[in-house]
């Protein structure tokens, strides 16, 4: 059994390749920028827990920039997870997940279109959502 595990480990090391993901974007809510939202860059794994590659809060203009890398046999499946209070109940942050694309070039940065957090996205948990109306 140990030989089989060692063989699989050796195949993984030889076959895996380093893959990169660099993203930048801006968050908005009801037309305003979202400051201090937590943006996390993750890589989805099938058989093991997902890998957190990087995280950062958005700046005063709602902007963020994240980068990471991972060794995988298959193409990586990166996504960003945004924890925010846009149209959320008090003390109940919403979590919005957005799929992004990896790149073979380490220095290439993927510029995302502005991300509007005002409404729920498909698959998003609605338990913290509370649509507010601005005066």
TrEMBL record:
InterPro entries noted in UniProt: Transthyretin-like, Transthyretin-like_sf
Keyword terms, alphabetized: Secreted, Signal
Keyword Secreted: yes
Lineage: superkingdom: Eukaryota
One cellular component term from this protein's GO annotations in UniProt: extracellular region
Pfam family, one: TTR-52
Subcellular location, record wording: Secreted
Similarity field: Belongs to the nematode transthyretin-like family.
Name this protein carries in UniProt: Uncharacterized protein
Taxonomic lineage of the native organism: Eukaryota, Metazoa, Ecdysozoa, Nematoda, Chromadorea
């Amino acid at each position: 059994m140990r030989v089989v595990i060692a063989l699989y480990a050796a195949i993984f090391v030889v076959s895996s390749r380093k893959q990169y993901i660099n993203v930048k974007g801006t968050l908005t809510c009801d037309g305003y920028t979202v400051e201090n939202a937590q943006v996390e860059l993750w890589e989805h794994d099938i058989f093991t827990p997902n890998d957190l590659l990087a995280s950062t809060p958005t700046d005063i203009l709602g902007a963020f920039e994240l980068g990471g890398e991972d060794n995988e046999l298959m193409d990586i499946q990166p996504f960003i997870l945004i924890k925010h209070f846009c149209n959320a109940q008090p003390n109940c942050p919403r979590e919005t997940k957005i799929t992004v694309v990896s790149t073979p070039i380490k220095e290439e940065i993927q510029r995302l279109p502005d991300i509007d957090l005002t409404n729920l996205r498909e698959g998003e948990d609605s338990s913290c959502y509370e649509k507010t109306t601005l005066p």
